[in-house]
């Protein structure tokens, strides 16, 4: 038996779990009225263009890095998630991963 | 380099963007702006429920039912709504039909607009700079990369999707499929054929 995927295997919808998560976050915020989809498309297109100035972006990590940068920009501007707070929580998550034994569920302590 | 995961004393550290997404999710959840269960539902919908099988039904029906085809060409959004395909990013859908004289291709040059209710989430290549930039400039070369060679007499038209208008290609029905019903026809219709980067092949 070969471990290679068969030719007919469908492409995964999302290549990484975080691609799916940031996608779902954005769709959910759009639906609750944080921004319209045309606003999103305008902002996202601008970030993609900016990221693509120096090199050709792929449709995987490059694409979703631009997606995440757009969402961070919008939420920072709105005051919903200021950059400092995002950075702090990012570091809290990193610490939680490093301090959690392998195999256990990683949780964030309540601040 | 491969390594033995059992050696890790701690949980495997996610990538930087993955940690940033978790940070956003935590902030938004604490502020009551999102519900993690709703996020899971959204991911599940696009991973498991909505995908090119919807568009394939629309195409197969258009091939089989001249009245449906006419209503689809006149007002695709309304016609597919009647089949139960509507929702996010499906507010204004337009179908474009391939003929021996005209081959249609779809792109979103600015980002990745796409008819979600009919095709789900676009594949990575649709979102890449390589496709978005090249398909307008050299559509026949892009088609060749996908293994498609058209007759010189067939014109190629590229449609640029936006947040306002999203396109679906109705590929040409292959010869030798006269006896097939809608479900059998739908099984032949691929995602790429509805973006315009593939042709539908007759069953072998």
From TrEMBL, chain A:
Residues 10-91 form the Nitrile hydratase beta subunit-like N-terminal domain. Transmembrane segments: none annotated. Pfam families: NHase_beta_N. InterPro entries: CN_hydtase_beta-like_N, CN_hydtase_beta_C, Elect_transpt_acc-like_dom_sf, Nitrile_Hydratase_acc_put. This is Nitrile hydratase accessory protein. It comes from Parasedimentitalea denitrificans. The lineage of its organism: Bacteria, Pseudomonadati, Pseudomonadota, Alphaproteobacteria, Rhodobacterales.
From TrEMBL, chain B:
It is an enzyme of class 4 (lyase). Transmembrane segments: none annotated. It catalyses: an aliphatic primary amide = an aliphatic nitrile + H2O. Its EC number is 4.2.1.84. Keywords: Lyase, Metal-binding. It comes from the Bacteria. Residues 16-198 form the Nitrile hydratase alpha/Thiocyanate hydrolase gamma domain. Gene3D superfamilies: Nitrile hydratase alpha /Thiocyanate hydrolase gamma. The keyword Lyase applies. Belongs to the nitrile hydratase subunit alpha family. This is nitrile hydratase. The gene is nthA.
